[in-house]
Amino acid sequence: MAxxxxxxxxxxxxxxLRASQLSKYYEMGEVKVHxxxxxxxxxxxxxxxxxLGASGSGKSTLLNILGGLDVASSGSLFYGxxxxxxxxxxxxxxxxxDHVGFVFQFYNLISSLTARENVSLVTDIAADPMKxxxxxxxxxLESRLDHFPAQLSGGEQQRVAIARAIAKRPRILLCDEPTxxxxxxxxxxxxxxxxxxxxxxxxTMAIITHNAAIGRIGDTVLRMSSGxxxxxxxxxxxxxxxxxxx
Amino acid sequence: xxxRGAGIVGRLRVAALQRKLLRExxxxxxQMLSIALVVATGIMTVITMRGSYESLIEAQxxxxxxxxFADVWSSLRRAPDSLRPQIQAIPGVALAxxxxxxxxxxxxxxxxxxxxxxxxxxxxxxxxxxxDILITRGRYVDAATPDEVIISExxxxxxxxxxxxxxxxIINGRARDLDIVGIAISPEHSYSVPPGSLLPEDxxxxxxxxxxxxxxxxxxxxxxxxxVFVKLAPGTNERAVISRLNDVxxxxxxxxxxxxxxxxxxxxxxGELDQNRVMGTAMPAIFLGVAVFLLHLxxxxxxxxxxxxxxxxxxxxxRDAEVGRHFLMFALVAVLAGALIGTLGGxxxxxxxxxxxxxxxxxxxxxxxxxxGLLVMALAVSLAGAxxxxxxxVRKAVRLPPAEAMRPExxxxxxxxxxxRLGVGRLLPASGRMILRNVERxxxxxxxxxxxxxxxxxxxxxxxxxxxxxxxxxxxxxxKIQREDISVSFLQNVSASAHYDLGRLQGVTRxxxxxxxxxxxxxxxxxxxxxxxxxxxDGVLRRIVTVDGVVHPLxxxxxxxSQVLARRLQVKTGDWLIAEMLEGRRQSERxxxxxxxxxxxxxxxxxxxxxxxxxxxxxxxISGAYLSVQADERSGLYRELKQVPAVxxxxxxxxxxxxxxxxLARNIFISVGxxxxxxxxxxxxxxxxxxxxxLSERGRELASLRVMGFHRREVAxxxxxxxxxxxxxxxxxxxxxxxxxxxLMVESLQTDTFRIPYxxxxxxxxxxxxxxxxxxxxxxxxxxxxxxxxxxxSVLKTRE
Lengths: 246, 800
What we know:
The structure holds 2 protein chains of 2 kinds. Chain A is of the alpha/beta class. Helices cover 27% and strands 28% of the residues of chain A. Chain A has 6 helices and 10 strands; from the N terminus they run βββαββαβαααβαβββ. Chain A has a 6-stranded mixed β-sheet. Chain A has a 4-stranded antiparallel β-sheet with strand order 2-1-4-5, covered by helices on one side. The longest helix of chain A is centred in the last third of the chain and has 18 residues, at 184-201. In chain B, 54% of the residues lie in helices and 19% in strands. Chain B has 22 helices and 22 strands. In chain B, the strands form 4 sheets. A 6-stranded mixed barrel of chain B has the order 3-4-9-6-8-7. A 6-stranded mixed β-barrel of chain B has the order 13-14-20-17-19-18. A 4-stranded antiparallel β-sheet of chain B has the order 2-10-1-11. Chains A and B meet through helix 2, strand 6 and helix 3 of A and helix 13, helix 19 and helix 22 of B.
């Protein structure tokens, strides 16, 4: 597998998502929980961003807001020119539908549909989708098209989920602990698929994980703690997935 | 010490489990309430229908006893009072009584339309031995004052008549002003329908009791009688007495004795009671069946979602029995809540129901009473049903080994179902296949859900089709059969020349005469008293019309029988009968069955008038006539006919139709209201619970779809599509069940006087389907609101 080398980022590169001073707090009874504190962040076209942090650090909250599942309590978030921080629920649904793909820790496949049908569920409502078979071939599952989730291994299920997420050609792919429920070797397989999708389709991607080793495959790595970004780093060279151990 | 400690822990443990029970019941309140309502409706129908049945039976028995209601009845032409000891001497007769009874025209103020009165004699001294009356206002008649009369209560109420008022009647051709001294009721006339009508017409038909001393001479019945009744000694063979009584009355023109069960008022009341008994058993069975299914469904799901909690309880040392009891308590809570609502509702509804009966049947002291036995029975049956519904699910919880319960339930296995293997799936989008597979994965559950909803459709059909039947009957009876403007009946048979006299009356454009000849028809050892209706063969005002509305031609020879009569006599077209005429020369002749028609009213035999004349050997007699009358001349004609001595009664189909339709409209309103309520409870119970369970089972999947950009509407379609399939299957199934139940009902409610036509209008099917769909949509709407508030984030983070 070829090693990608990315030198200094051109700061004028197009930001797909721009967040500034994002904060999120929840009222838990009489206690106010600050899940996210004044986060500034840009996600650039074609970038692979890895968000690291322990559980409770706020990384999922940030991902949910970026994905249009949740809205910030304050601050602003732009998708291109569209302001998501003030969008209605229906506008957010449309945003997710047209531009965002999700990969979940527990795959969340529809158990009553086969691999192919799980993908076509999304391609049915997309404007310019791939063929479900094409998306499944991209993740190496061309031979498992008509299997139901209960007939697939965890890694296979996660690859179906990735196929489902990319089949509509989203601009942004958000992955929440995509390897969290998998053993290391299956996890590596899933990461290499994500890596390949990022390079071949140019999809902007954010992966959240508590596994620091995974940070080495990204362009940018953000470390979060107590709702704040405490460390930003950029990898000059994205490590090959096969070389990662955990 | 150890024991005491365990006791305290035990008590605490129970308390904590009870708190869990209460909180979870509250959490599941929508589902618990919908099950409770299904149970409540079941209990309500028991308490209303069976409770009313018991109350009516009790009032009926008491009333019959107090009034010494007779067991065997007969009318006859005329017999001297001296015959009475002979009747009394018939073996098995405990008491016998006789009286004079006639139908006469009433001349009522402010009413041009004809009105009729049934005049009944009262003994000169003391009260009638049998068939006494109950005076509700005023007093008994004084035999010394010949013009005193007691009138029936409903007639009095309908016409606003009171003791002290007077009333004009044409008695034996003479107008007489009668003084009302009392108002009374009697079991013979609990349900009082004028001759030839279908429903009570209280404003134009009443019963009038007069002293025999006044009524006897008026009808040339001095020292004679034309009605006789007997009370049987316990253990007597009724048929033997009837047969002996017929023999005794034969020389005096007996029209054939009949038992109490054939007495019209008793028969109507008994028919209603039977209907209550049938409905009071069938309806609760349907509702409790649905409740059992729902409890099974909801508890099964509850136990699946609480696998982890069951494991923890067991790991902490709760015994299987304690865990089982805990889940059983959910069923008991639903049933007890249902019992409470059902009992209260049932008592209220029962009171209203009995109130409705009071308008039709006057049964003194009739009021709704709930017997403790009935309540205990309804509770016991509901509890047994609930426990049986819960048992399967609870057993699952008890059997679950703690270690296994700790692990999440293995994912559901799907495979393409039968429909897809047949290729139907290819036609569907992925979302359609999702719905289809969810239905096919649990076919038994889907079937019972559909069956439940189907019963909601069926309940509506069996309620609504009655009106179709009655409408059909009205159409036939008043538009195809009774096409005269007025029918005139004579006190006694008159000469056929009356045809010409009637034709000369002002405004009369057509006259068709008829003859009603009382007869006993025999075939082998089967026999039946009835009337042969002799009609003009080329007549257009009255015709024989079958259920399908087809006019059946009247043959020149032979007799046409209504189907019920043919069945009783075990004859078919072409068979021969013996006709024993019960009036005139009383000759017996053989007569051929020329045809059998399916009709709705009475057990009648029809014949050509000329053929009937030949059969009886009497040629110059008619009993009445049907007239066509110019509309503007009707009032004048009524007034004129009131003055004709030979005229016993004048009836107008138009006025009959009017009161009929008024009654019907009110009944439709009440019944449809209840039916819609009952059917909705089932449809909502099944669909709401089905959708809630599907939401709990698939909330994660649906949330994932929302995350992926599916709109709420699209996700709702996926969730509710399954319920839509259940409802769609339920509709034809419900039509089928309704069709079958309606047939059973028509069969079981068939009596000699009245048969509901088995007609179900297309509109009834659609209305039933529509109401059910509306209830299903309403419940789906409630669940959809829940779907809208689905927590997208939390559902993604955790495995079930």
